[in-house]
Design brief:
Elements lengths: L29 E2 L14 E12 L2 E10 L4 E8 L6 E2 L6 E2 L11 E9 L2 E9 L3 E8 L5 E4 L7 E6 L8 E7 L10 E6 L6 E7 L10 E4 L4 E3 L2 E12 L2 E11 L7 E4 L10 H4 L7 E9 L4 E8 L3 E8 H10 L5 H4 L5
Parallel strand pairs: 6-10
Antiparallel strand pairs: 1-22, 2-3, 3-4, 4-5, 7-8, 8-9, 9-10, 11-12, 12-13, 13-14, 15-17, 16-17, 17-18, 18-19, 20-21, 21-22
Length: 341
């Protein structure tokens, strides 16, 4: 048993895993040696898959994938895998329906997240609602996807659900933005009694003073409940003379008041360094969207988009990453306060 434990975690003895290399970077995450696990032109009509989310499902793995189609319009496709590394994709995009079962498709959909809450799986993505906004749907069988009401007005991106209710309320992180490729952005927390009405908005974290997150930040994978708090992998963005650079950061939120940040790592956990992260349709992007974790070993696999072109996997353990975040933590007053003004 490690120093820290997953709360309400699952046993996943067959999840993707590779031991850390003998000579590492000193950072707590290390890459899968056969990255990227999804390459260009993964199925007919789709040029690239990236920024996608997976969960365990019926003894295997299922995922929702941002598929940039050859017509330039992103949509969400369903994928299946026995080992979490090799994926088979359904040939057509997910078809969403309304509460009456009638087809109700978004004009576009990208950067999905996926979380299982008490047997109902919720899919969250960015779409058009007369401006960039958050779309939501639910499924219990991955055959019928029923759209829910959009939780927020435009403009908003990077919505991430917590995997359980807190104080009998659903909780969601998001990043209010503008109508363009936002040159700003903080993470906020909102709550709902019913997945329809969202309010009690709280500020969680602002952009950092460190170079790698000094432009904007946004939620990544669904928060992981641990004995130390909610472990959050998020993305931080900096600006260069050659455009934005997206890195993976880490923080730990209070278990009962997740708008309070307990620890926030001052260094990135992973930044674009490999060819498939630095070169692609949008260069220099590491964008986390999902994790798998095994409660028995403390292992964590992180799925992240690479250069808006590929999907990669990185690994860590609960003990390694929490110790690293705590040892390199720098928090501000706006991090540690409840976030209400």
């Amino acid at each position: 048993m490690g120093k820290y434990t997953f709360i309400n975690g699952n046993s996943l003895p067959g999840m993707p895993w590779r031991e850390a290399p003998a000579e590492g970077s000193g950072l707590p995450l290390w890459r899968y040696g056969e990255n990227p696990i999804i390459r260009r032109n993964p199925l007919p009509g789709v040029a690239r898959i990236f920024n996608s989310a997976v969960i365990p499902w019926e003894g295997a793995y299922i995922g929702v994938f941002r598929a940039e189609r050859t017509n330039g319009i992103p949509m969400i496709y369903l994928g299946h895998s026995k080992d979490g590394l090799h994926w088979d994709f359904e040939p057509d995009m997910i078809h969403f329906v309304d509460e009456d079962g009638k087809l109700f498709m978004p004009q576009y959909a990208y950067d999905p997240r996926l979380v299982n809450i008490d047997g109902t799986c919720y899919l969250i993505w960015c779409q058009d609602a007369y401006g960039a906004a958050i779309g939501m749907a639910k499924t219990t069988d991955f055959k019928t996807f029923t759209r829910l009401e959009n939780p927020f007005l435009p403009f908003n991106r990077n919505a991430v659900l917590f995997p359980r209710k807190i104080h009998d309320r659903y909780m969601m992180l998001s990043r209010p933005s503008d109508s363009g490729h936002t040159p700003f952005g903080d993470i906020y927390l909102s709550e709902s009694p019913d997945m329809k009405y969202w309010g009690c908005h709280r500020h969680v974290m602002g952009k950092g003073t460190e170079w790698w997150e000094n432009v904007k930040i946004g939620g990544g994978a669904a928060p992981i409940e641990t004995s130390e708090g909610w472990l959050l992998f998020y993305h931080g963005v900096t600006g260069t003379c050659n455009g934005f650079v997206y890195s993976i950061g880490g923080a730990i939120l209070d278990i009962d008041e997740p708008s309070r940040v307990k620890y926030r790592c001052s260094t990135f956990l992973l930044t674009p360094e490999e060819d498939y992260e630095e070169r692609g349709f949008v260069p220099n992007v590491c964008f986390p969207c999902a994790t798998l974790q095994d409660k028995d070993t403390g292992r964590i696999a992180i799925y992240y988009g690479c250069a808006d072109t590929y999907v990669g996997v990185a690994f860590t353990t609960l003990d390694i990453v929490i110790d690293y975040i705590r040892e390199h933590s720098v928090v501000t007053e706006t991090d540690t306060e409840v976030g209400r003004r």
